[in-house]
Amino acid sequence: MRANSSYRIFFSIAAGIACRLLKERRFPDMSVIESSIDVPADIAPVVFGQLDANIKKIEKALRVTVIARDGRLKIIGTDSSAGAAGGVISTLSELARRNGVVTEQNVDYALSLAVENREAEVLEADADVIARTITGKPIKPKTIGQKKYIQAIRDKMIVFGVGPAGTGKTYLAMAMAISAFRANEVGRIILTRPAIEAGEKLGFLPGDLQSKIDPYLRPLYDALFEIMGPESFSSNMEKGLIEVAPLAYMRGRTLDNAFIILDEAQNTTPSQMKMFLTRIGFGSKVVVTGDRTQKDLPRDTVSGLDVALRVLAKVDEIGQIRLTAQDVVRHPLVQKIVRAYEEYETAEKRRKGSRK
């Protein structure tokens, strides 16, 4: 018993010395504090991440030192950085309790909000379950921008969701459409997009009309299959309750009691966009999605999405949500790619402007 007691005293003293040395080495000439936070043993591995990857990322981003001891985490850093780290770890702990998993995107997003002490807002978004996939996985907004997007779809008759690739514009709109369809809020789902090749000339495509247009509509099918399942999708498609068609097929129709999604709207012309928006009938809800940086229109052709955003900016029944690189929920590398291109394009505009 005496030996065990001696060991505990020794390790306690050693840990105290280590903490003091860490302070002196990492935070010279700075006001440093120690704070601690409970992380229950059952969720600690999830919060820490594989090989403590999440904790290491927090330490690097916020310039703190985190030490695990007896079921508690000791955080050493400046007043602001230690507080931010504690807030991020608390947020990740709650996500681990709710979902049993903490993703790299969760960690990155919580850290990005920690600068403004808004990391707890991650939990607000996570609480909103829109629908479930065929395997039972909940579909939720993962960022504040996505939550605003979902709320706008609920509140407005027409919503424009604009942002870079990976922000969930189409997928979340699809989930909302299926949720409304299952709740009998609408009688059918109509999905459409302009059939324009992404900078390539594919030439003649063999097969019947459906075979020719399917490649352009594949992203919409993928989301439907994941959320509804192929059998339910095929059954509703045969009944005419789900329709997937090129934008050109919308001309001359009136779309009542339907949830309508126009995807890749940056590739519409102004006349196409006007045609589409004037098809809307009673009891319908519309979501228009697009990425203004990825146009495949012929050179010098004005995008119908750009025109519509300006013309309809003051119409109360129409919502406009701008998602950013911070809302990217694909692999973290996608977020870095989006930001790099944004910086490059901004620099190019400045350079061209300085030449004039």
Keywords:
356 residues; Ribosomal Protein S8, Chain: A, domain 1; 2 domains; Rossmann fold
Might you state the CATH topology name of the largest domain?
Rossmann fold
Radius of gyration: 25 Å
Shape: globular
Largest sheet strand order: 8-7-9-10-6-11
Largest sheet: 6 strands, parallel
Please state the second-level CATH architecture of the largest domain: 3-Layer(aba) Sandwich
Question: What is the helix fraction of residues, given as a range?
Answer: 40-55%
Note the run of SSEs as H and E: HEHHEEHHHEEHEHEHHEEHEHEH
What is the CATH class name of the largest domain?
Alpha Beta
Class by alpha and beta content: alpha/beta
What is the arithmetic mean of pLDDT?
83
CATH-level-4 superfamily name of the largest domain: P-loop containing nucleotide triphosphate hydrolases
Distance between the first and last residues' Cα: 83 Å
User: Number of helix segments?
Assistant: 13
Percentage beta strand: 15-25%
Instruction: Compute the number of strand runs.
Output: 11
- The number of domains is 2
Unreliable sequence segments: 197-204
